Amino acid sequence: MAILVVYWTGTGNTEIMAEKLHEGILEAGVEADLKQIDDCLPDDVLNYDKVAIGCPSMGIEELEPEEFLPWYDDVEPILGDKPLLIFGSYGWGEGEWMDYWQDRVKGLGLNLFEEGIKINSTPSTKEQQMIKEMGMRFALK
Ligand SMILES: Cc1cc2nc3c(=O)[nH]c(=O)nc-3n(C[C@H](O)[C@H](O)[C@H](O)COP(=O)(O)O)c2cc1C
Q1: Domain of life here (predicted)?
Q2: Whether the CB of 128 sits within 6 Å of ligand 1
């Protein structure tokens, strides 16, 4: 079994989240790759059993529109029933972009794992541990 953790980041906060998820998955003893979307063609997701996708809140509570969204629009239709974990960082408010993203995923009937992880700004040490534990659960489920 292999898991892909793939993300877009502007200033590195979502990247820290991706690294912690990846760490947790590896600690659970499951093979995993960590990639930025630049290094991952949409079809590459087909090589994995489970996929974790990260994108921060950009625009006005939106997924990043220039690079991430066109990539994600191509990925979503080929995910099938692969377990999908979504995550990202936000800067203010309640992190509504994650609610919209989850609604979108659920509306398409995709196999969403737990609730998407949203973290305000840079994840604290405690939040990093929580993310790592979620990575372990994702790996072992
Ligand atoms: C162009 C732009 C738009 C943003 N829009 C939002 C927003 O609508 N809501 C929000 O909570 N944060 C917003 N943010 C803040 C980012 O989500 C926040 O800084 C986040 O930590 C960035 O994650 P990253 O370091 O992975 O890029 C925006 C930031 C930028 C640069």
Answers
A1: Bacteria
A2: no
Asked if ipTM goes beyond 0.95, one says: yes
By CB atoms closer than 10 A (0-12, 13-18, 19+), residue 99 is middle
Question: From the CB of 12, is ligand 1 less than 6 Å away?
Answer: yes
CB of 123 shorter than 6 A to ligand 1: no
Structure token pair of residue 90: 């936000």
Q: Which two tokens stand for residue 48?
A: 């994995």
Ligand 1 atom closest to 60 (CA):
8
- Ligand 1 atom with the smallest distance to the CA of 12 is 25
Instruction: Tell me the per-residue pLDDT of 7-44, one tens digit each, with 9 for 90 and over.
Output: 999 999 999 999 999 999 999 999 999 999 999 999 99
Architecture in CATH for domain 2-140 = 3-Layer(aba) Sandwich (3.40)
Measured CA to CA, the distance from residue 32 to residue 50 in angstroms comes to 9
pLDDT score recorded for residue 51: 98
